[in-house]
């Protein structure tokens, strides 16, 4: 005879509430999952905000009679900040980045000293050369005009917010599930739980359920912050964005289950999780585009779940991509979800 | 609420379990009758925990049969779990939950059983219901473990070293709770290495050593098999020794043994043995440095069977 029960007495509800309680009663977990990504977005957004272009520093080596003439010609260019320095000080300025380029006026020719791997140095070379040649009387062959545009969606913060969102989904999925399960196994709580009539599927389902609800807060906070504070555009269909977040979170939760399926100690779990996540932190293009890595690495990078998540989120948020456009990434995410979950079920140890 | 027709609550036949290089359980038989409290008494490493975990369905034997409440593991697991209460050695419940939340969680797994509040009151944790598990003392945590074992209204209760590591007062408090459960007619299998615990709680006891039972009976039976009601222990001043032969001849002494400088005499009639011992020591010219005597206990049964103590302290 089973008695009539309130819905809150259902084991799945109880288990899921335990997940919430354990999470919200751990202030550090709340900080890392909810607050840290927002702080990171704020910090990076401010550091890399678009500014009125700064004047580029250029050093002119003093001494030669041509130095004054060169400095005068460069001084009239609005984008250049000219320093006239002795040779050693000029070299020092180049090393420290105070000057992007050193101009050495000579009797017959002017020498440019710069590092061609520094983008600002290459810009400085063009600006300096332009200013000097024009001062010497070179005419413009083609008439041109400038019209400056600031497009929302192409700034670094726009690039960054979907990346951070993906990284956060990965971290909270893998860490949140992994640590909780390994901790319960280490404390022999898993063993105690399976000594009751508890359904094992409901136990695992409680992690998925709690992740999905925490996800709403997690995604809402970070995207809300990006939109309200930095004006990040959300151009894609919302249904696609919601589905992407759900499936990504499920995929990473499954990976968390897999990682924690056998580990007995917190140290072991921590090491294994970092091993799994480190390649994605580096290669998946959270902070800069993954296409910067060599072509030979691309098949590996493109197969990583976080690469797919971040690419799909960027395509949706910044370029308005719908179902069809993110289908390849969705495929990769679903494959990770399915394989991890099935492997986790097979490998999982309750003792 | 007992199982039908006097069927035993638990029946174990020829149980064997071997880990890589250790034989943990070596052909063990035991039977727990409905309504009794049965104790597995033995030192650490005797195979008690392996045995009880096999009975709980948490470990699988290499060979042998286990019948719990007339059912077998592997066939009726879900139903069996509804009818068993289990307290494992060293379970740590989540420290961030309160006592009440923990008991509610465990209650939710069972189809029937008492309300969480009443179980919490039963184990005398009412005042701590809203406290986090992390703030509980060792004894309170053990009572919480007991509450989680009782929350499904079990017919058979498994307790693996329920009082290990507790102070005497907490231990006695837990004993009272277990006695209460027993008086409600339920069956209990418990393991312990405290002989006082077995003597006080258990109707019958099996003493196990190296995975085998070496004695079985009521605590009273086992003690009376010693044929000696008292144990007399003494040590000698300096490093002097006495011959054990003449000690055994003293009137009233049944057996004598010597280990680590302590002499143990099993004594039937203390009033005869004591003067005899003093006379013998004087004759051999030995000086006493210690002398004590106590009524025989299960510990003495274990010592006389194995030559070792239950606990190496």
Task: Name a few traits of the molecule.
heterodimer; A: 351 residues; mainly alpha; abc type-2 transporter like fold; 2 domains; four-stranded mixed β-sheet; 13 helices; 4 strands; 6% strand; B: 313 residues; alpha/beta; Rossmann fold; Alpha-Beta Plaits; six-stranded mixed β-sheet; four-stranded antiparallel β-sheet; 34% helix; disordered N terminus
Give a short synopsis of this structure:
The complex is a heterodimer of chains A (351) and B (313). With 351 residues, chain A is mainly alpha-helical.
What is the strand and helix layout of this fold?
The complex is a heterodimer of chains A (351) and B (313).
Chain A: H1 11-24, H2 27-47, E1 56-61, H3 66-75, E2 80-85, H4 87-96, E3 101-105, E4 110-113, H5 119-135, H6 156-186, H7 189-194, H8 200-230, H9 238-259, H10 266-283, H11 298-303, H12 305-319, H13 327-347
Parallel strand pairs in A: 1-2, 1-3
Antiparallel strand pairs in A: 3-4
Helix pairs in contact in A: 1-8, 2-6, 2-8, 6-8, 6-9, 6-10, 6-12, 8-9, 9-12, 9-13, 12-13
Chain B: E1 10-19, E2 22-32, E3 37-41, H1 48-55, E4 63-68, H2 77-83, E5 84-87, H3 99-108, H4 116-122, H5 138-150, E6 156-160, H6 168-183, E7 187-192, H7 195-201, E8 204-209, E9 212-217, H8 219-225, E10 230-236, H9 244-249, E11 253-259, E12 262-267, H10 270-284, E13 288-295, H11 298-306
Parallel strand pairs in B: 3-7, 3-8, 5-6, 6-7
Antiparallel strand pairs in B: 1-2, 1-4, 8-9, 10-12, 10-13, 11-12
Helix pairs in contact in B: 3-4
